[in-house]
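Render this sequence as a predicted structure.
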Amino acid sequence: MELSKLNKLTDRQIVDALVKHDPAVTQWFFFKKSYPLFKAMYESFASQFARHGVLIEDVRELIQNIYLHVITPGASNVCALEGFSFRSTLLSWLKIVTKNFCTQAIKNKFEYESLEITNDDGDRISPHEPSLEIDGYSLALSDVVKIMNMVKVPRNRKILYVHYIEQMSSAQAAGELEMTVAAYENALSRAKKEFKELKQIHLK
């Protein structure tokens, strides 16, 4: 669809197209029309993301998170966009949604950090927190995230995130990161080696 036609779409037409996963409207609305909003919001929260270890490293990642947040069906099989009432403009609604999402992401990280306790052996545990099986060890999710945030290279942190947290297959992760499967698996091997070394330091 031509840009001139996209710019003439009403909020209702945009929502209908987004719910139907129209690629042209989705790309235009999230990465062009709404980009200034997302950029300002990311800049507002970036320092807090870094301080609390929230894995949103740039504007593009924020946009991808918000897209999934508003388009993924909930328990009632209805996505947030379908619940938009049109009592405000779509951009005004999106600004509120994005601010709430960022605030909640930081709150969730803070709560994970606050929940951490130790058992009699000094191991980090929490009865309220999920754990992951990694290299034969059961690690609290907050520990996994903290160790990943100690990894220096952002690309390696992302690789570990899609592998350990999102538990993607090599093919899925390679597609997400725009890499070949072979390149992804080589990079994952290096990242896992660094993760293991950092884990030993973090869990001492």
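Summary. The chain has a mean pLDDT of 82. The chain has two domains: 3-113, 121-202.
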